[in-house]
Amino acid sequence: MRTPTSAVARKSVLAVAGAAALAISSFAAAAPAGAAPTVYSKGGTSWVRACDTLAKGDTVSCHALKVVNTPQQLSPNAMPSGLGPSDLLSAYKLPANGGAGMTIAIVDAYDDPNAESDMNAYRAQFGLPSCTTANGCFKKVNETGGTKYPRANSGWAGEISLDLDMVSAIAPNAHVILVEASTANMTDLGASVNTAVKLGAKFVSNSYGGAESSSDLNYDNTYFNHPGVAITVSAGDSAYGAQYPASSPNVTAVGGTALHRDSSARGWSESVWSTSSTEGTGSGCSAYEPKPTWQKDTGCSHRTVSDVSAVADPATGVAVYQTYGGSGWAVYGGTSASSPIIAGVYALAGTPSASIPAADGYSHTSALNDVTTGSNGTCSPSYLCTAGAGYDGPTGNGTPNGLAAFTG
């Protein structure tokens, strides 16, 4: 890092240090094997982290939060709780029945044996077209593109169901590729991103992350250097602090909001998702990553997280159908919801024209819902953790308001 020569630069150093410390501490807080998951609560809603326990060798965690005080219903025909496709399309002014001709990839770790059937139960419930291996819409592969899948994991199965259901909700006519990494570390997950692009995906959602490190610059070039591909990454669920790969300048970093119906002209309102000092949407100033040319905020000399955002608060969570590690209909939150939502929005907008599609949002800020309330921590300068008019760390430039901000 260059020696700071101004007050802004000195603030940037503090922001970098704080972000790195928080990312490391929150990542290290993953539960040891066999420990009961921590239960979080807000406004009468309680949830757990789906990937609260890391398997041996894992270095990143998924960002899915599973609500535990909403009764699960196994029947696919039961009335699910949580936001459904029509809610999300309404909140973000998105066209229905979109995505035709596009291919969206989901990258996750481990196997969900019921991924295809569960996704299609979700689709059937909401009147969306089926997406199966048989009709050519769905493909499930391992990290090298083969069909020898990794071992199953019930926590990551919840993540997989959440991801598949969100891209189904937003872009139901897109083809879907699920790439399952052998383990939850950056080498395997990064190889899975490369496989997704090799198989033709122009939109790749990643809902996982961990502490930043000096190795990230190499990972950027090895795994995330795919010009013309919209790679979305969840900003994290551990409140203020930058995580990787959301901090890569090659991706669209996706923050999280709380989404409520209201009586406004829009019909919805949003604020920064924050539950406590240790849980909420991630944001912050990267300790290692260079600042992309299209990012103009002045309080961080490195890459700032996030770029855009969408619903993530489990207290305003989304409906998900999961039977491996679940009992049917459930409600999920976390920035694991916002990342596939934004990947779906990119798919609705069509094949990206920008080398790094995240840049488009910075030149079309008026086509986003500016989120101006809420905070996910304490920081300096304050915009890195507190929403306000214009760009801020927790919500980036805002949430989708149609498709204009996601096109060239």
Automatic annotation (TrEMBL):
MF terms (GO), sorted A to Z: serine-type endopeptidase activity; tripeptidyl-peptidase activity
Top-level taxon of origin: Bacteria
Signal sequence, start to end: 1-30
Domain Peptidase S53: residue ranges: 82-408
The keyword Ligase appears for this protein: no
Keywords carried by this UniProt record: Hydrolase, Protease, Serine protease, Signal
GO terms under biological process: proteolysis
Protein name: Peptidase S8
Originating species: Streptomyces rubellomurinus (strain ATCC 31215)
Lineage: Bacteria, Bacillati, Actinomycetota, Actinomycetes, Kitasatosporales
